[in-house]
Amino acid sequence: MLAAYVLATVGLAYAVKQLVYRWSHRISRHGRSLRTPPGTLPVFGNGLKFLLLDRQSLFDWFSEIHNDVFGFETYEITVPTLPPGIVISDPEVLEFVMKKEGSEGFGKGPFFEERSWHLFGSHGIINASGQLWKTQRKAGNRFFAGSHLQVLVDEVFPKFWEKARDELNEAAETGRVVDMEELYLEFTTRVMGRVAFGMDLSNSHPFSAAFDYASDLTGLRFQNPLWKLNYYLFGHKFRKAVSIVKSFGNEIVRLAVCRRENTEGDLKTEETTETVSTDDGGDLVNMLLDAVPEHHVVADSAINFLSAGRDTTANSMTWTLHLLLENPHLIQYITDELPSVGVHNYASLSTALTPKSHAVFLETLRLYPPVPFELKQTLNTSGMLLPDGTVLPHESVLVWCPYAYGRSKKIWGDDAYDFKPERWIDETTDITNSTNEVKLKVKSAAEYPVFNGGARSCLGKRMAEVMGVWVMSESLRNWEFEEVEQLGRRRSRNSLTLPMEGGLKVRVRKKAPAM
Ligand code: HEM
């Protein structure tokens, strides 16, 4: 009896606190409340939807209500226990939010940081702010300058692609089925291991499994209002995975410091017997050590860079190949413009020389953005006013869904759901001197937020594009692929990024060498 009384009192106190909080943090537009999505419940709001739907279904839901109900109108979503939130879909509003990144406007805020800090730490570029973020951003900018990218493409990619090439050749001879998602992930893990850490890192390293597990659960925290309870009651495996990730980060920094001190004898990790290489173009961890004195910050940062670049690029390659296999006429469309083997280098993969291949890549990311969901919070203590008149109190959560932006009929037209790389191409024919100019169209970050925009735009955008086109070229020039099963519309599986559920299983045939 007493227990029931205590429970009821606690429940009532909580409900009153929530009501007062919501009233004092009311979101409004021109003095009125915002509309809410169809199916919003009186007490639970949209909480059950977030709790029960998998991430893919949630992205489909965002796309449907954008196209069928709200269009560009900003609407409100409510989840019990969470701060009030809105969903934005209007490129003009998004442009404003991107421009106002920072403590006077919008930022990751406690909502994002609380959910992600176990995995990403609070010091790495993903969660850092102020001077700490600026220093890492500067080091990253320096790293991704043209000369490093050129070394990456011309020396690091071919070296790490050898394993993929051998595996594909062997599969072509034996008829073995290959999971291209795994093959691409192995390649991007090795490239990013080299970029971020200056070491040869395989996807079979225990770090990778631990990282994958921790990032899948971190992704789910954004949907589950009860994630803390989960963490404290059943978080043992998650804590173990995070500790593997952290120790790996610390070990990387130790190795980098040894390398700087030229103590070659120490340059072997516990799990890998391969010696760390220092030749091809330097690595980020070194640049970070130049810029940041605290080793634990460098460790967080290096892990952040690896996570930003590894899965995103592998996702994009997998979806690109899948969409090309579904639209085989496009394979010829791009192989015609790809450079021959002898000149397959950084300079030959510019957007000017390979516009159609870039178009295929960008079109894939429009439909399958590897970062499908974005979230910010109002950091300005006086709140913010959006260009559409929405008034946001301090700490309101803003959400936008790049997946839904990519499928917006208002932005892309009625064929928004179709894969049409031509929409990225400007083709002009000059009949006087019979020339044909093919150029890649540019879209603003606010209409195409796949790489984010503003101060926190993706640092690896050019690297991702060139890597995507390079891998497309290597894959399509040398082998023919056939999906093992026609599975209909492919879905993504729960994760922080957008991996393909079930992977991409193919049979491979070697192509005859081009004459
Ligand atoms: C197709 C591949 C990629 C996509 C779609 C992508 C997308 C994004 C997006 C949406 C953000 C903003 C995330 C946020 O709000 O915090 C971001 C940030 C970032 N990306 Fe990428 N990314 C890709 C590849 C890469 C690669 C290869 C790197 C190289 C390491 C990289 C490095 C970063 C970094 C360091 C940030 C944080 C920037 C900052 O907070 O200042 N990304 N990326």
Give a structural overview:
By secondary structure, this protein is α+β, with helices and mostly antiparallel strands. The protein has 18 helices and 14 strands. The strands form four sheets. The protein has a five-stranded mixed beta sheet, with helices on both faces. Strands 2-1-9-8 form a four-stranded antiparallel beta sheet, with no helix packed on it. A three-stranded antiparallel beta sheet has the order 6-14-13. A hairpin with a 2-residue loop joins β1 (28-29) and β2 (32-33). The longest helix has 32 residues, at 295-326. The radius of gyration is 24 Å and the shape is globular. Protoporphyrin IX containing FE (HEM) binds at residues 125-126, 137, 140, 305, 308-309, 312-313, 316, 365, 369-371, 374, 450-452, 456, 458-460, 463-464.
Name the strands of the widest sheet in spatial order: 3-4-10-7-5
Portion of residues in beta strands equals 5-15%
Spatial gap, N to C terminus: 87 Å
Provide the CATH architecture.
Orthogonal Bundle
Indicate the mean pLDDT. 88
Summarize the amount of helix as a percent range: 40-55%
CATH superfamily: Cytochrome P450
Topology:
Blueprint: H1 2-24, E1 28-29, E2 32-33, H2 47-52, H3 55-70, E3 75-77, E4 85-87, H4 91-99, E5 106-107, H5 109-120, H6 130-143, H7 146-174, E6 178-179, H8 180-197, H9 206-221, H10 227-234, H11 236-260, H12 284-291, H13 295-326, H14 329-335, H15 355-367, E7 374-378, E8 384-385, E9 390-392, E10 397-400, H16 402-406, H17 409-412, E11 425-430, E12 435-440, H18 461-478, E13 479-483, E14 505-510
Parallel strand pairs: 4-10
Antiparallel strand pairs: 1-2, 1-9, 3-4, 5-7, 6-14, 7-10, 8-9, 11-12, 13-14
The chain binds protoporphyrin IX containing FE (HEM).
